[in-house]
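Researcher: I'm preparing a figure for a lab meeting and need a structural model of a single chain. I don't have an experimental structure, so a prediction will have to do for now. The sequence is pasted below. Please return the structure as C-alpha cells so I can convert it later.
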Amino acid sequence: MATEIRVPTLGESVAEATIARWMKKVGDAIATDEPLVELETDKVSIEVPAPAAGTLEEIAAQEGETVEVGALLGMIAAGGAKPKTETDKAGSGKPGAKENQETKMAGGGQIVEVNVPSAGESVTEAQVGEIYKKVGDAVKTDEALLELETDKAAQEVMSPVDGVIRELMVSSGDEVAVGSLLLRIEQGASAGAAAPAAEKPAAASPAPAKPAESGRPPAPSAQKLMTEQGLKASDVAGSGKEGQVLKGDVLAALERGAPSQPAETPKVARPASPVEDEAREERVKMTRLRQTIARRLKDAQATAAMLTTFNEVDMTAVMELRKKYKDLFEKKHGVKLGFMGFFTKAVCYALKEIPAVNAEIDGTDLIYKNFCHIGVAVGTDRGLVVPVVRDADRMGIAEIEKEIGRLGLAARDGKLSMADMQGGTFTISNGGVYGSLMSTPILNAPQSGILGMHKIQERPMVVGGQIVIRPMMYLALSYDHRIVDGKEAVTFLVRIKDVLEDPERLVLDL
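Model: Understood. Here is the structure written out cell by cell.
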C-alpha cells in the first residue's frame, strides 16, 4: 500500500510554495518523520517529513516547480524503511521530529524522551523558561514539566507518562530547536528508585546567522524576482534558513526602495553605572516574547505612515442598556455583559462601511479583507499578546463576550495556541482598564488600524443648550496613512461613536 506525500498547510494567506530540493531519491528507504523535501514560500522555508516509513516510490513534483497547498509531491511504498539511529531518537532538531520517543535503559525500565514540540508555522526555536521539576522528581501524565517561550507565545510542556525524571538536558534560559531533547522520564518508576547519574551535556553554541551572500543560494522565486529587478543577493537581507533570501525579503527590499541593503545601526555601548548605583541594579535577560514585542512595535513605526485621530463617545446609552439587561444576559448566556462586546460589534459595523481600515499592503498591492477577525490586546505578566476573535462580524454580542472570555483566560494562563493569534485584520486595545485617559496605540502590523479605548470619566457636556454630566470616553484610531485617508479615519470613528451612542442601530443594522 502506497502513502501520498502532499504539500502541508503553509500558514495564513500562503497558498503555494516552490520545491527547493529533494533530500531523497526514488528507491531510497525512509523512516517516519524523516525530512524528504524542502519547500520555500514567500515567507519561510520548511521541510516536509515522511508521513510513513517505506521506500520513496515516486517523485511527482520536481525541484523548481511551484505547487499549491494539498498538491501531490510523491509516493511512499510500504516496506524497506531503515531503522532509526540513536541520534534520530534523541531528536533531530527538525520540525518533523517526533515529540516523545521510547528507549530502554541498560538496567531498567522504559525511558520516554520528551522533545521540544512544534510551536506552529515559522517557529523553529524556543527559550526554556521556568523548569517545574528536577531530576528524581515523580511526575504524572499531563503534569507540567517546564515552560517554553517562543517569539509569539509561552507554552507548557506536559509529561506524556507517569514516572520519574532521570535526565534533564536543559536549563532555564537555554535556546532549543523544535524537536530537540528536553528530558528523559523512566516510565512507571517511583521517586525513591535509584537510577544512573546523568549530567547535562555541554550546550552547543548556536551558530550565528550567515549573511545571504555566504549562506545558501536565494530561493528560486526570489532569484527570479531579483533578476527581473536587477538586484544581487547581497542587496537583500535574507530571513530564511542560514540567511537564505526568500521572495518576501526581495519584496520588502523593493518596498523600501532599496537596491542596497541598509547598513545595520551600530549598537552604542551603554555607559557604566556609578559604583554606588550598580550594586542596586538588576539585569534580567528579555524573554523571547518581550524581544519580539519590542521588535514588532518598532518595525510598525518604521514601516507604516502612522497617524492617530481622536473622538469621544457618550457612554450613557450603553451603560443604561448594560445595567438594564446584565442579570438577564448572564442568566441566559452564562457570561457577563461587558463593554467589549458592544465595541467589537461597533468596529465590525464601521469596518464594513470603511473597508480601507480593514485592509493591508502587500508590496504594491492592497488586500481588502471581506471579513472581520478582531484582535483583542491582552496584557499578561509575560507581555502583550493579541488573540483574535475570528469572524466577529458574524457573531452576536453574547458569542463575542464568550470568545473574548475564553481567549483572555487562555492568555493569562499561557495556553493560547498559534491559531488563536493568527489572521487578525483589526485590533482593539483597552487601556481604560488600567486607568488610561488617552493614548496613541501602535499598529499591529500588517494591519492598517487599531482602536484605543480609554477610561470612562464623568465630564460636563453641553447637550441641547444645557450643561449636563455625562460618562465620556476618548477613542483613538491609529491608522496607516498609506492606505487610509484622513476623511476615512475620521468617518470610521464617527460611525463607532454613532452606534455606541444609539445602540439600537446595531439591532436594526442602520
